[in-house]
Here is the input.
Amino acid sequence: MTQVIGGFAALELHPNILAAVIATGYEEPSAIQTLSIPVILAGHDMIGQAQTGTGKTAAFALPILSRIDPAKRQPQALILAPTRELALQVASAFETYAKQMPGVSVIAVYGGAPMGPQLKAIRNGAQIIVATPGRLVDHLRRDEKVLSTVCHLVLDEADEMLKLGFMDDLEVIFKGLPAERQTVLFSATLPHSIRSIAEKHLRDPKHVKVETKTQTVTAIEQAHLLVHADQKVSAVLRLLEVEEFDALIAFVRTKQATLDLAAALEAKGYKAAALNGDIAQNQRERVIESLKDGRLDIVVATDVAARGLDVPRITHVMNVDMPYDPESYVHRIGRTGRAGRTGRALLLVTPRERRMLQVIERVTGQKVAEVRLPDAAAVLTARIKKLTNALAPLVGDAETTHGELLDRLTADIGCTPRALAAALLRKATNGQALTLAEVEREQPLVPNGGAPRGERSERPERSGERSERSERGEPRERRAPVPLADGRARCRTALGLRDGIAAKNLLGAILNEGGLVREAIGRIQVRESFSLVELPEDGLERLLTKLKDTRVAGKQLKLRRYRED
Here is the structure.
């Protein structure tokens, strides 16, 4: 597509917004920006079909900011995002573009943070609200008029919101918004469920579409590990014990985190350094050169600080903190596996970040396999292997060069050569645990499933999502299924509460992948080790075939007709 002559200046943005865009270094709008900005500025409803990484955040942020009235201290624009990470990224983008608009305030609203300060910021007049649907519904329950002044609504990555089970939440939010508003919907795909939303809630929308290829990173072996948020450093240190890497770059979100993790790695004997935005350019260049020539083996960096970093010997990328969006993930792990070489990418995932992992898998079109924290036996084997590799080259001529010294020392000390060798090993290993019992005692407690206390999922528990026992104390597994309505068939999946599944997750996946309307799906019962879903009997086998490869919470749905024999 040809660019608009004059770049952003030709798009009739507010002068202050244009100045902020120029200050960021952007010169020409992307295809989705060129097509979308005039439509949104004109006040039309719009459906934009574009994937992450096409510049769509600016495509709606710039025109909406141009239409915001800073003098009105009330919510004027609502942007809905499927995950906490994307909400934070979008809010950050709005703040960047609004730097030269005094009086404009942005608030990010998401689960896992206190509700009080969020609601206070909204009531104090934040004009831009960027929210995940689940947490926003919680606010609506406290104050049903919290969105009454919103005149611009954006649904960002609408298909992901439905896949993550937010259909019912979206309907609650639509009811809390004024009927007279501008609605913009962005989605990578337009399944039946998205078209139904558009027909119901958008007025004569304009359609904008930009073709992009699925991002793939086939040369890189990818894996993820579920961890507690406060045990990431322990998990990193344990993983590095067994990973055979040449050079590694570890990504974190904050400047302080680069310093903390680099210090923890240095304390364990790794040649590591931090790389963040506060580090001077000449020092940054020294760090990169040291990584290239082997004086450093690990660099801990933020996304901004790692821009342009290309070191051929990097074999591993470790995402210690979850990236804000799939595009960032692809850029991060692309630092390895270059020029035909293979690479390995590890991603630490807290229970609250499982949704973002699903989004990454969909956008990249690849499964990020789950791995377990290495057990004590694996760590012990790795430590002994490293010790063996370090000592093996020294053994060849050691007797010739140091044999006489050995004889003298054993005589002076009055010990056997075996005892002296053991003492030297103790000194060389600097107190490192090298027996199974000792390694087991230092093993960190990192989970491989389930949300730890204080890290619950974004939404509170609802009916159908309670514990495995009923109020009578009877295990859910043993209760008889509710009688079926006419024209419906009951289907079973092996996914249940233990897999982190809620009814809304199953509903969103089936609506999106099966092409059904909400009314076609009956009761969904989620139990500890399986779930039951009522689907239309008519065309059931065809529907089950369409859902064959569907994944929920990173696992295959594998729906089958349920026989109640």
About this structure: The radius of gyration is 28 Å. Residues 7-209 form a domain with the Rossmann fold fold (CATH 3.40.50.300). The first strand starts at residue 46 and ends at 49.
